[in-house]
Amino acid sequence: MILEHGSIDDDDVGENLLIINKMAKDYCVQHGITLRKIKNTRSRYTQRCINNDCSFKIHATVLVDKCTWMIRSLTEGHKYSNTQFNKHASSRCVASKLLDEFKDNSNMDKETMQKTLMRRFGVAIPDYICWRARKLRKIQRVSQASTSITAASGVPTQSSQAI
């Protein structure tokens, strides 16, 4: 879940808690918020800003179907900027955000990655995260290529042999 507009609202629905977690993580990366879990049970999910003086809070609950989750309340009011780098902006997160750019230019340099992320999301990331994201995309591209070659050659995989 990539939040292009950088916003989540009350009554946003996710298929499961993992989707709600990703939405909250993307929102926090884009707005420089570091969260701490308050409640994480089967039916409720609450996180607050790590700064005790900040009023930012996100609260979600499971719906009647016991699978789908909805954001019940989102208390804005984050007024404290985070440190220079956001710890939630991991190399995996950067690689997923820059997926289209990596398709166009697989050897993107770190300065271009940093400028793109700053322009699109307002996130500053250190050099080592850029290099790890680039390496991760190359590994994913190689594994996808080997999977497609295996599928094209007609060699059965383990999952098709089990059937």
TrEMBL record:
The domain of life for this entry's organism is: Eukaryota
This protein is called what?
A: Transposase MuDR plant domain-containing protein
The species this protein belongs to is Carnegiea gigantea
